[in-house]
Design brief:
Elements (H helix, E strand, L loop, with lengths): L8 H14 L6 H4 L1 H14 L5 E3 L5 H5 L4 E2 L8 E2 L7 H10 L8 H5 L3 H7 L4 E3 L4 H8 L2 H10 L1 H27 L2
Parallel strand pairs: 1-4
Antiparallel strand pairs: 2-3
Helix pairs in contact: 1-3, 5-10, 9-10
Length: about 180
């Protein structure tokens, strides 16, 4: 069923933090432990009056699965990049070539254990949220390297964009396979 949904991204982080405070949810457990992920997804949906549960709740899943340093935050700030692991576009290419490790702690809980499937069995509609290339790279490398690369070495950046596109599609296929048993 197609349904319009008023998107208010400016309210997103505030709404999530309000849910954490209101229900005194444990951080970082709500980002990495199945029972807390399920609980938070339903509470966040209800609190923000959304027609669906959104998973994952943060924009670090893909970068974390690629070895990025993620700080899961606290009651006042959600997950975010810590220190970049790549210092050059060449290092970034090598990291992307290694691919996403979907079995990594935290990533595994949010993708392979059927989070969306468990929510659906409980009668919930689910939206699987993915980050874009720049958001992913922001955790892996100082974005100034990306912006400089776009301007100075567009062919190299086109290759890197193609590589991240392949990884993002692989993630979608894997989530679908794990959630639907395909």
């Amino acid at each position: 069923m197609i349904q319009d949904y008023e998107c208010r991204p400016e309210d997103s982080d505030h709404g999530m933090l309000e849910v954490i405070r209101t229900y005194q949810l444990p951080v970082p457990e709500i980002y990495v432990k199945m029972e807390e992920i399920l609980r938070f997804a339903k509470l966040e949906k209800e609190q923000n009056r959304k027609p669906f549960c959104t998973i994952p709740f943060d924009h670090t899943l893909e970068a974390g699965a690629m070895g990025g340093n993620v700080r899961y935050g606290n009651e006042t700030a959600g997950p975010r990049a810590e220190k970049p692991i790549c210092q050059s576009l060449e290092e970034l290419k090598v990291g992307i070539c290694l691919g996403m490790d979907l079995e990594q702690t935290g990533t595994d809980e949010r993708t392979s254990d059927g989070t969306a499937g468990k929510l659906r069995k409980q009668g919930e509609e689910v939206l699987f949220q993915m980050s874009g290339p720049l958001t992913i790279w922001n955790t892996l490398i100082d974005v100034k390297h990306i912006l400089k690369g776009i301007r100075k070495t567009p062919d190299q950046m086109e290759e890197i964009f193609g590589m991240i596109e392949t990884e993002m599609l692989r993630l979608l296929v894997e989530v679908k396979r794990r959630e639907y048993g395909l």
